[in-house]
Amino acid sequence: MASLKEWWHRLGSPRTFYAIAQRAGPWFTGLGVAAIVVALTWGLAFAPPDYQQGNSFRIMYLHVPTAILAQSVYMMLGAAGLVLLVWRMKLADMVIVAAAPFGMSMTALALVTGAIWGKPTWGAWWVWDARTTSMLVQLFLYFGLIALRQAIPREETAGRACAILAVVGTVNIPIIKYSVDWWLTLHQPSTFTLTAAPSMPPEMYLPLLVSVLGFYALFAGLVFARTSNVILDRERSTAWVRALVREQTS
Question: Which of 81, 108, 121, 181 is the most buried (most CB within 10 A)?
């Protein structure tokens, strides 16, 4: 138990996280970019058309990964907020600052690609469907997190306020996920799930899987990079950052 507690606090150290991020970040970023390029080329150019939707279904190779990642990022923000409120680890607040803009971008991209998919499928760019509406609520939650951070000048107070909003906002995640089961909606059931066999042939499913994994890897790489920048900014007065700067400039 003591070793687990020691490991937990060591991982929560900005200096330790920075060292890990510098080693792992570029690998995740490179892997993510390569996987996304392969998946989109595979899905857009070589996967067969859907028997009902034709070629319009190909937007799913971008829409599905961004929608999944948008929810996963907010779940991570909620977990980081809980860590900040319970254990008061300042690294958790740094991760929230670094990840929130990426999650907001993924949510916006999911909504845009969903509208592009919905036009030929539903005959309208937007419908007040339970899934699309709850995703729009999530976009507003991301906006709220970023705006709240900028509105409160005191860093520690802003961190706690954003942590509370992040934790409370996770209530929307099960609404997004189960909206197609709880209400009568136009949105189709989940295309990608880990608890059931794929409902599509391998030549259509595999590029989607590669795309999802690629987006997760890219997210990891970008969060490592952005969190590293936040650490350097907030820890600039510490001895280890000053020594790092001197080493890099010498």
Answer: 81
